[in-house]
Design goal:
This protein is an alpha+beta fold. It has 15 helices and 18 strands. Helices cover 30% and strands 23% of the residues. The strands form four sheets. A seven-stranded antiparallel beta sheet has the order 15-12-14-13-17-18-16. It has a five-stranded antiparallel beta sheet with strand order 5-6-10-8-9. It has a four-stranded mixed beta sheet with strand order 1-2-4-3.
Length: 461
Amino acid sequence: MGIEPSQAASQAWQRLAAAMRGALLLPGHPDYEERRHVWNGAIDRRPLGIARCADAEDVSIAVKFAASEHMPLTVRGGGHNVAGLAVRDGSLMLDLGALNRVEVDAQARIVRVEGGALWRDVDAATQPHGLATTGGFVSSTGVGGLTLGGGVGWLMRRCGLAIDNLIAADVVLADGRCVVASADQHADLFWALRGGAGGFGVVTRFAFRLHAIGEVLAGAVFHPIEAAPALLRAFRAFTPMAPEQGTLMLVFTTAPPAPFLPTQVHGQRVVALAYCWSGDPVLGEQALAPLTGFGEPLGRVGGVMPYAAWQQSFDAHAPAGEHYYWTTSIFDGLDDALIDALVPDAATPPDPMCEVHVHHLGGTVAAMPADASAFVHRDAPFFINVIGRAQAAETFTAVREWARGLRSSLALWAREGMQPNFAGEAGDWQAHTHDAATRARLEGVRRKYDPSGLFEPVRRD
């Protein structure tokens, strides 16, 4: 008599559990519910099992298991991806959360980071040496996801994107082999990892170049929402010639109950100029004055501080467990008509915690060769992220429609495509994150290293 399918499956899971150093979490395990949830509370999916990998060997074992069982596979690093690509129904999730070690070689200015680490782990290790590398806009973001999608952040205009500082990556391939991808080894894979948005293997360790950055001049200047059109035009005029040490952002947000703001504006919609200057602070004060001194602000906060402290300043605006929907658009300019279309919607979101972020690129990001990596948007002067956040699940639909509608209203002026790290839906990763030529090249790399499609980042059925 043959073995019943459920019995065979149970035996397969037992073999996997026995082979791994880390824990295997199946439905019913006390830790399963916690680990199946990711940062975005709007994602509610149930994998068949969660392999809490203890090391790269565990990753290899779990990858081989998924391949032999013809089981879809997802990878959770920091779990911060807004589209929830770390978890899928009916799949095996590789949870890298325990792989979070960070090793700093201060003399060589290199940091080696395991695939489950967060950027705050990197900052904590590098800052005592007066060193840093580009690591996003909040410290709770996972190193792996941000890097594979390109990696914009506060240091990008001086130091480049996260991928521009990536020296090498340890990768577990679909057949379970562990290889090192770098400019000298598996160079095609190294190209694809840098901005290709994942789906080529499991990166168990990254090696990044570090820069001499300890303290930064950073802060935020808050203005009434009525000043937004003029401030956007001033931002448009200033940023093309901005020194590369400075990265700035305009944020449509709701005024917090902070002591540096008048009580009468608490809870009102405002626009803030956030800035980070990673050079000499005296020169920074002078260089940024055309924007930091603009208009008649409601209040301001900031000064000279450790880079790691500034990197954590926005963490409170991205708490885990709330319902999020993001979308992003890329622009060659900020036309007056675009500004006129943007401001009314950005000023009136359905939830006060929703934000709109207006970014600029340029500097070292734009100086890198366009074909050096799979990130295809480095020549864009501006991009705008719509950050939908619902504090209550009941308002999530309205928040999502607001974000989608705002992107649609800006489409007339936008380029085709979007940055992978801000794509709010899984389908966007397949269709909109790369141009046709780059997408074809990425598919060629994927067929070479993952011919069976085990690591496909997006379900295509």
